Amino acid sequence: FQGLTRKLMMLLLVMLATALDGLMGTDGVCRLAVIGFYAANEGLSIVENAALLGLPFPQALLAVLERMKQQGEDTEIKH
Predict the structure, then answer these.
(1) In this structure, how many other beta carbons lie within 10 angstroms of the beta carbon of residue 45?
(2) Which of 4, 17, 31, 65 gives the lowest tally of CB atoms within 10 Å of its CB?
């Protein structure tokens, strides 16, 4: 249920960004930023899960992903 709610929130944010683009008269900049953020987030999640399954990845990439994950957890704790 939580995963479905998260996906619906993503869709809602894309719709909101599209409406904001219409109000501001921009050519899809806000919408593209929101979609890009979620695409990158999902891509990183896929890479992280593949690494947990044991697929070989460069250690530098895994270190960066671990650092980003730690920063995200630190941000969630502060809020």
Answers:
(1) 11
(2) 4
